[in-house]
Amino acid sequence: MNAFYDSDSNLILAKQIHTVHAHKMSVQQLSTFIS
């Protein structure tokens, strides 16, 4: 796990993946709430 965060680029990539995943989840929850 630590090796994945060795470089700044990997850390940024991890943050971007997390942000995209969180956004997808919020959209999915919103769609469920509306319907």
What does this structure look like?
- With 35 residues, the protein is mainly α.
- Helices cover 77% and strands 0% of the residues.
- It is built from 1 helix and no strands.
- It has one helix at residues 8-34.
- The protein is rod-shaped, with a radius of gyration of 14 Å.
- The mean pLDDT is 77.
Features:
mainly alpha; 0% strand; 35 residues; 1 helix; 77% helix
What's the quick description here?
The protein is mostly helical and 35 residues long. Helices cover 77% and strands 0% of the residues.
Outline the secondary-structure elements.
Blueprint: H1 8-34
What is the N-to-C succession of helices and strands?
Answer: H
Provide a count of the helices: 1
The overall pLDDT average reads 77
Structural class by helix and strand composition: mainly alpha
Which percent range fits the helix content? over 70%
Largest sheet, in brief, is: none
Low-confidence stretches: none
Task: Quote the beta fraction.
Answer: under 5%
Global outline: rod-shaped
Q: What is the first-to-last residue Cα distance?
A: 39 Å
Q: How many individual β-strands?
A: 0
Radius of gyration: 14 Å
